[in-house]
Amino acid sequence: MKYVCNACGYVYDPAVGDPDNGIAPGTKFEDLPDDWTCPMCGVGKDMFSPE
Ligand SMILES: [Zn+2]
Predict the structure, then answer these.
(1) Distance between Cα 6 and ligand 1 center (Å)
(2) How far is the CA of 45 from the centre of ligand 1 (A)?
(3) What is the dihedral sign for C-alpha 21, 22, 23, 26?
(4) How do residues 22-40 score in pLDDT, each as one tens digit?
């Protein structure tokens, strides 16, 4: 499931991951490290909602 950032609209797609921050493709949002932040605006995981 994709998750969208409530602050800036960035969409985390688990099929893509976040390679720039060491998150491999296929990583579920739930499995991101607790200190992962939005690559666009820097807010934490608690600011994301399921798309
Ligand atoms: Zn954001």
Answers:
(1) 7
(2) 9
(3) positive
(4) 999 999 999 999 999 999 9
